[in-house]
Amino acid sequence: MVLTRSQAAAAKNKAQQSPQPSPPKATKQRKRRGAADADADAPAASAPLPLAEKPLNAAAAAMGARLGKIKGAGAAPASHPLSSLPSSPAGEASLPPGGFTIPAVQQQQQPQAAAQAEEQRGELQQPAASGDAATSVERRGSPHAADAVEQRGAEPAGPAAEAAPQQHAAPPAISAVPRGEKLLKPLPDKPIPCDKLPDGPEPVQVEVEYPARSELQPVEDPAATLAAALSGMGSSDWVETVRALGLLRQLAAHQPCTCAQQLDTLLPLVLKSVRSLRSSVCKTAIMAVCDLYEEYGEALLPLTDVGGQAKPLTSLLAQLLLKCASNDKKFVLEEAQRALHTMVASLAPGDLLPLLLPYAEVHKNPKVRGKAGGALAQAVSRMAPAELAAFGLPRLLQAAGKLVTDNTPDARGAAKGMIEQLRAAAADPAVEASLPAEAPAPAAVAAAAGGDAAEDAAPAAPPTRWEALCQAHLTAFAALAVLKAASSESAELEALAQPHVDSYDYFLGEGMQHVIESMDGIEIDHPHAKTRHRFWFKNPAVSRPIRDDAGSMAAGGDQRLFPRECREAGTTYKAAFQCDLVYQVEGLPEQRIPKRLGSLPIMLKSRACYLRNLSRRELVARKEESNEFGGTFVCNGIERIIRMLVQNRRHYIMALRRGAYHKRGPAFTEMATLIRCVRPDESSLTNRCHYLIDGSAVFAITIRRAEYFIPAGILLKCFLEVTDRELYDKLVQAVKANEAHCGFVAERVELLLRQASNLGLHTRAACVEYLGNLFRSALDAPPRKTDFQVGEQLLRELLFIHLEAPADKLALAVQMLLKLFALADRQCGEDNPDAPTHHEVLLPGHLLLKFLREQLETALDAFRQQVLRDLETRPEVVNLQDEQYIRKTAERMQDVGQKFEYLLNTGNLVSRSGLDLSQSTGFTVVAEKLNFFRYLSHFRSIHRGAYFAELRTTTVRKLLPESWGFLCPVHTPDGSPCGLLNHFTASCRIVTHENDQPDDIVAALCRVLAGLGMVPSSPALPAPPLPAHLCVQVDGRVVGHVRASLAGAMLAHLRAVKAANLAAEEQLTPGAKLLPVSSDEAMLPWHTEVVHIPFEKGAPYPGIFIFTQAARMIRPVKQIASGAAEMIGSLEQNNMNIRVPDGGEGGSKRLKFTHAEFHTSSMLSVVASLTPYSDFNQSPRNMYQCQMAKQTMGTPAQALAHRSDNKMYRIQTPQTPIARTKRYEHYCMDEFPNGTNAIVAVLAYTGYDMEDAMILNKSSVERGFAHAYLYKNEQIDLREERGRDLAFQKDPAKYRPKPYGEREKPKGAFGDLYPQAVPSTPASRAVKEKGIQPEGAHKGADIIDEDGLPHIGAPIWPGQSYYSAVDKLTGRSKGSKLKGEETAVIDQVSIVGGGKDKSLKQANIKLRFNRNPVIGDKFASRHGQKGVLSRLFEDVDMPFCEQTGMRPDLLINPHAFPSRMTIGMLIESLTGKAGALTGQFVDASPFQSSDAGEKVDQPEEFGQLLEQAGFTRNGGEVMISGVTGEPFPVDIYIGVVYYQRLRHMVSDKFQVRSTGPINPLTRQPIKGRKFGGGIRFGEMERDSLLAHGAAYLLHDRLHSCSDYTVMDVCANCGLLVSTVNVPQAASDVTGVRATSGEKGGRGTPTCRLCESSKYVERVALPYVFKYLVSELAAMNIRCSLDVQ
Q: CA–CA separation, 347 vs 370, rounded Å?
């Protein structure tokens, strides 16, 4: 809109110059401030007084300087979305006149400003800004405005320059004082050069259009049009300028010859319009620039960068870069980026590079460097390797080295693209020959790696030519950065294990130091010397893993220990842990001795691991995975991972109703509030406040798993010296008066106060002494401590341990009581402890910190106990000042490293206190590499806890809406862990580190909050009542209160600050409107969680809660108003309005959204987001696919030759899927493919494809479809054989091998011949000509070599030994036999050993089993359609397509789709078919229509491609039966589907038995396939045989072939247990014959009850029946049989 003269004059009256301010005070600079801030710091002659010198408001003035000097927050620019919000009451107090006033006060002084405005009717110096009205004021300047602009060319065009026209604008949203560095300089006397006001008649409102190049129309008179364009672009009327630029665009598009001769004149005029401050002129000029470069290209090269960086106002390139880098309006920014792209594309790269390089390397504006780097990368990508070599690879490499180390994400991203192009060019044969072969100074790069990398460097391999090029032309630091950037291909993949690695780094660094600092140590009183001695730890240090064998150390070799060596040797990857044991005698200086406390397991890729910062090439050289991202521990050769667990949110008061609270006692109710408090060393304690039946309350604390209760009335008086009246006011006045709830609280408070008065406790000292006397024994306090000191220790160590000030502890206790009373009176609702809003994550490093603290305390306690025992038994040897005695006693401390190893190996936590955890098992799991999906899932999984798995309730397993964006709704296993084992979404992050300066951050945050209207809290004043005021808590500390009406504006400002700080950390949304922040605001962490819970009866308790500490789940969303990215937490999200891109209204038509999701896949995990077209499938099927993807036989690893996993699966011919999601490439899934693209026909063909069965083409299988290997690794350690001295050696027994033709050809169970190795005789050609070693003469020489280990590639039959070990003492040999019924092949033999003993005692033998598809194996698509192979059809019997003759690989029954509703598989079949025909991959990402904002119909789109290729658009084809030769009456749906072969195979599960081991008790076959047992034939199986009438089969299975036995039964009494054999002894019969009857036979069976053998009969019965009768008889129960 254009303003008339009268409107401009009215605007002048409202925007007069403020009084001259005094100079600002110096403020602390932050490192992150850019060049724009530095420029604005220069001559600030006109700056406001610091807000610290002015009273904030009446309440703050009354309370004094509780928070120190309160500084103002940064002012929001008028263009920022916050400009429309109401202002803060920070300026309500009257301010001293004559000074610069904050905007809120400026509104109050408008009458005075209006009076001054009449005297200052000069030139208008500042436009009036408003957040709502879209108006602007034109300035009038001198005729030489353009010259004035050139004179001011040094001013930046970024955010600092934008602050100038907004400094004296109308009040912005949040009233606050700007930073001194951001203030305007004094305005000059002459007007600021800018667009002029028109001099003609008053214009009317103008609508400016921006037609695209294709919409431009030709002109009739080109010459006249050119003249009009030249005249209009020089006009002072901006409307005429826009019209002239439009005419120029028309000429350039349709009559380019007309302008060709006038380019020298036209381009400076266009450049002048590009510099215009009016967006319409600027955008039109930039569009004209784009059209000119598209048309003229190379002709504009001399005019592109006139003046360069020295004169940026005359350089079109500089102006475009500045426009791209500015935070101006989005539509101008996008047009500038498009013009820059067109400029780069239209000019020759070789001519453009010299122009771009200075801007990318040395420009002061970091955003300009980033944009120039992107243009540079675009130009480099258009050059061939020879062109890059001709220009100079070293010169471009130096530019890439500067960009890759730049602090802006755009520059680093551009550098990676350049490095890839340069590396590819260096690998070109024609270019590579000209590069140097050796690096001049390779040691410099190793030294730049930091730490002891240079000292521990192993003999490195010769550098490649690329490495030599980097080291020759770059500094050591830049070369290392370039090489690392070239080796890192997927940041997303490394981010999966980042929570594990970062938390472990925190454990090794700051966390371990926090543990040592927070420990008090121990004190020992010497009874004889009458001295007091104190012992504690200091200076913890964890070294790096080194070998412990003497060979490498003596020879001076490489002592570094790498994870691969530990995997193959079956040892633990660990490093020494050492502390200083400090001891001091009272009154004397401290002394210390170093004490090694064992070796701690080291996490891979952590700061103590040698794999850190290695390139892909170096990782491969170390025999690791090329994309190894760490996060695991190698314990006893097995990779294990600490599983992330769910914990209650720290520092947040939760109100709960639990029936278990009744069990505390008859006076307890089901209501309580609790808070989990965490120290900086991550140790935690949970404090509860229980509501009693009589209306009072008690606080609960836990000491060594024992629970103790303290009356609330006594505890409240222990923190500060307060009266009963003050406590009454703190609790009662915090509730709104004249309400029933106020009386309810008053009654309960009176009961609390009586708890102390009834015991005669009226002062703080009396209350503390009372508690100290009660808890003296529980705390093991020494007698020398007074009751008061013990009570202080109780308050310090067991109550609200995250707070230090007693006033803060009192305020928090009051808040717990207020929330408890509100819950009891039903004023607020209970919190859901199972919702992710109240959860945080127990990270691996934080768990280890908890465990380390307890183990160190246990070690000190063991030292104290040993000294006390020595004092009792032999006091003469105890000298606590003797270093020798202290060393000897310290040697008896426990090995802390062994405790850590036990925790990691078993997952069991052995703890005295329980570490405030709800479980003691299940902390670690094996990081199995069955396939890459399964391996990835371990790092993104989070478990609810082993305790909840035993609960018989589904409450904890439910999928709650609060988990949106943080936990995946479909990636959870089915079965017992369903809902308990969840997985994070792909976009969810975990805060792993605590803040470096938490106290400074809280202080700065308090100053910011005070500037936004918060009244700081004071122990002397009661809190204002709810709901008019809300309590503000920062990390569980009450810092103040704010009016409920101002809470929205406060939250909006804090969110804008968070977004600005996040943009400084990482650029997620370039071009967003960011709020200029002050130094205090810049200290706010970008991951801060700001929660606003408004007041609502029955809803959660209201308040403003700010969380800045670690272990929280966060994720990115986008602010709708500013377009900036912001990190939000789970509790924060619950009270926000976030729009979901669902293609509609975002979930609600009437809801006003403040934030939006970046994309629809933000709710899916990594594995779930790889499922194609998952939005077309039934949800349970997507869940099944998440599980089956982790059970697939795929490509588990690339370094298979160096893996020693117990079991691994590998598919032989994997393929990349045609239909894939966008995240498929982000996680390098092509390096670990998991399936095969199969031709699938949906057809009911014979009866072999019913009930989830499927038919495979036998020819496809014979060609290699789904062929796979199973690898089993056996680690043989002969050192574990106790009492024997074994070594690998051939069997020394004499043996004469038979010729090959006479050897037995063994057969399998079904008559198949086993494979057999053909030996080489000494006379064969292989031995004479090829040098093959002939077969030996020892036993098993065809399999076992001379050293006792097997030959590589030798086939092993079932039951055959595959190695030989000989006992040196006895000479006997030992070997292991192959179990099972499968034939194995020796794939690899690894020898492990070293040191003094040179004999072979340890080896790894890897066996390979062929697993080709057989009937009964399981297959599945990526849509949960699992099926069993039922038959392999001959190729001639398979149906084929009439048009192409193609036969499908797989047949699936059409009845598998209707009930399961896996429509995504049908769409994949169609799109995969089209992709195979066109040779293109298909984007199968879910919710494409929602992300695009319009309908995306892929079946229709790809159906057209099929029609163009000659197929039907619906995917069906006419197929002909392979059996009858007739076409089917309907079209058959056939296409390409990616199929997976699962690891569930018949070869692993079939169980057959004829004879075998039996149970000695029941004489029935044992169970278990592993032990050769049978299959259980139970009651239901018996019933089914009875129903079929198969009685004889039942008799055969349960009797004849099971425990058939013959027993004697007395037919008279019916007893089975009363019959015995009575011997028939004679005078000539002695010994065994006397007891066995005549002629060696059995004795006479006689019933001892009937005393006769007349009625004894022999009966065949199951033996288990006799066992049953015997058991009943032992219980005095008689069982009689009726024998007929």
A: 20
Which residues touch 1323 (CB under 8 Å, ≥6 apart)?
none
**β strands within 512-612, DSSP E:** 522-526, 531-542, 574-585, 591-601
Half-sphere exposure of 1506 (CA within 13 A, CB side): 22
Q: What is the DSSP string of 160-213?
A: HHHHHHHTTSS--SS--PPPGGGPPPPPPSSPPP-PPPP-SSPP---------G
CB count, 10 Å around CB of 1467? 23
**Could you write out the three-class secondary structure of 1514-1548?**
CCEECEECCCCCCECCCCEEEEEEEEEEECCCHHH
Of 331, 392, 397, 402, nearest to 363 by C-alpha is 402
Cis peptide bond N-terminal to 1027, omega within 30:
yes
Q: What is the 3-state secondary structure (H, E, C) of 830-891?
A: CCCCCCHHHEEEECHHHHHHHHHHHHHHHHHHHHHHHHHHHHHHCHHHCCCCCHHHHHHHHC
**Alpha carbon distance 1007, 74 (integer Å):** 12
Identify any residues that bridge with 533 across adjacent strands, giving them in sequence order. Answer: 524, 585
Percent of residues in the chain assigned helix, strand, coil, to nearest 5: 40, 15, 45
At residue 19, the 3 state secondary structure works out as: coil
Nearest CA to 52 out of 1090, 1079, 1017 is that of 1079
Enter the tokens of residue 186.
Answer: 């004094």
pLDDT along the chain (1684 residues), means of 10: 43 42 38 39 38 35 37 41 39 36 38 44 36 34 37 39 37 35 37 40 64 86 88 86 89 86 85 84 88 86 81 80 69 82 87 87 83 87 85 87 78 80 78 58 40 39 70 80 64 86 94 92 87 93 85 63 92 95 89 94 94 83 90 95 95 94 92 95 94 95 92 94 92 85 92 92 94 93 92 94 94 96 93 95 96 95 93 89 91 93 94 90 93 93 90 88 94 91 94 89 94 91 89 95 94 94 85 88 93 92 95 95 94 92 73 90 93 93 93 92 91 94 87 94 89 92 95 90 85 78 74 79 80 82 89 91 89 87 91 72 93 94 94 94 94 92 94 93 90 84 92 93 93 96 90 85 87 86 90 88 90 89 62 47 81 89 92 92 86
Go through the domains of the chain in sequence order and give each one's CATH number: 1-44+95-123+170-181 (no CATH), 213-438 (1.25.10.10), 495-640+844-912 (3.90.1100.10), 995-1157 (3.90.1070.20), 1219-1263+1415-1546 (2.40.270.10), 1551-1601 (3.90.1800.10), 1603-1684 (3.90.1800.10)
The alpha carbon of 1205 is separated from its chain's Cα centroid by a whole number of angstroms, namely: 25
Which among 1641, 1649, 1665 is positioned nearest to 1611, based on CA atoms?
1649
Dist. CA 270–CA 286, nearest whole Å: 8
Would you call 657 helix, strand, or coil by DSSP?
A: strand
- Partners of 1558 in the β-ladder: 1565
Query: 1268-1277 and 1482-1483: which strand pairing?
Result: unpaired
Strand partners, 678: 684
> In the chain, what is the straight-line distance between the N-terminal and C-terminal CA atoms, in Å?
115
Sequence-separated (6 or more) residues with CB below 8 Å from residue 1052: 81, 82, 85, 173, 174
For residue 917, report the phi and psi dihedrals to the nearest 5 degrees. -115, 155
Q: Yes or no: say if 1525 and 1440 are a contact pair by the CB < 8 Å rule.
A: no
Of 552, 550, 541, nearest in space to 456 by CA? 552
1486: nearest Cα among 1116, 1118, 1142, 1137: 1142
Residue 816 near residue 689, CB atoms below 8 Å: yes
Give the CB-side neighbour count of residue 894, counting CA atoms within 13 A: 17
Predicted TM-score (pTM) of this structure: 0.75
Strands (DSSP E) contained in 892-976 are 924-926, 941-943
Q: What is the 3-state secondary structure (H, E, C) of 91-129?
A: HCCCCCCCCCCCHHHHHHCHHHHHHHHHHCCCCCCCCCC
| Count of Cβ atoms closer than 10 Å to residue 1600 Cβ | 12
